[in-house]
């Protein structure tokens, strides 16, 4: 099986090297490059074509948010971005998710958590399951502006079952968990998810979840 190719983008050398050592020790994962800032990350993502970019948010030259937007814009779904942050409620992380990141990870994560996150994102899933991620999305969606009409119109294009699946995605459930909740085959859920992404015009599950909060379809717990 081909190893998951990872690019690490962080302006702190010790962080880059530390993550590189941890990931290279994991079976099926290979660190193919390191970037010292956002511009370097964009250039190396184009040159090395990694499967996953570990992206720090606050970097010189070009920040992680804009770097994420450029990488995702150029590579589409081919390169996944996993945002690295020091704080679990960093306001910039929410913007990174909107820019196309597939999830985020705290810099104090264990080696096992880091490897798991890379594998989840590389597989095309979104790192939404951890409660901290759901809390972040919910909190900053609550703080955002009122739902925009065009967004709500697109939600109206969804079928009743697709709307139900979208709500479960926003709660952080995986395809398997959604299948169990709805008592349907996992392949059926995958079909629903694909149609949801097309109808909403979003790249992946993470953006679909953010969309669900932004439109008011799903409301953060405690803020109804």
TrEMBL record:
Keyword terms of this UniProt record: DNA-binding, Phosphoprotein, Transcription, Transcription regulation
Single Gene Ontology BP annotation: regulation of DNA-templated transcription
Annotated positions of the 4-aspartylphosphate modification: 56
UniProt cross-references to SUPFAM superfamilies, sorted A to Z: C-terminal effector domain of the bipartite response regulators, CheY-like
Pfam hit, one: GerE
Annotated Response regulatory domain residues: 5-122
Coiled coil: none
Domain HTH luxR-type: 151-216
GO MF annotation list: DNA binding
Protein name: Response regulator transcription factor
Source lineage: Bacteria, Bacillati, Actinomycetota, Actinomycetes, Streptosporangiales
């Amino acid at each position: 099986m081909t190893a998951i190719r990872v690019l690490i983008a962080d302006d702190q050398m010790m962080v880059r090297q530390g993550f590189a050592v941890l990931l290279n020790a994991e079976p099926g994962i290979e660190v193919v490059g390191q970037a010292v800032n956002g511009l370097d990350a964009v250039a190396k993502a184009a040159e090395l074509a990694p499967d996953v970019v570990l992206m720090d948010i606050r970097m010189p030259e070009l920040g992680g948010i804009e770097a994420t937007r450029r990488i995702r814009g150029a590579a589409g779904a081919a390169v996944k971005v996993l945002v690295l942050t020091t704080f679990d409620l960093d306001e910039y992380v929410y913007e990174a998710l909107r820019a196309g990141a597939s999830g985020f990870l705290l810099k104090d994560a264990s080696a096992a958590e880091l490897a798991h996150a890379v594998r989840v994102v590389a597989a095309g899933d979104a790192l939404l399951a951890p409660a901290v991620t759901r809390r972040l999305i919910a909190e900053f969606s609550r703080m955002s502006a009122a739902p925009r009409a065009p967004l709500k119109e697109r939600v109206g294009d969804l079928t009743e079952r697709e709307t139900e699946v979208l709500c479960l995605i926003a709660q952080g459930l995986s395809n398997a968990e959604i299948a169990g909740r709805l008592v349907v085959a996992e392949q059926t859920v995958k079909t629903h998810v694909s149609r949801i992404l097309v109808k909403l015009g979003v790249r992946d599950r993470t953006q679909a979840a953010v969309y669900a909060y932004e439109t008011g379809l799903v409301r953060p717990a405690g803020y109804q």
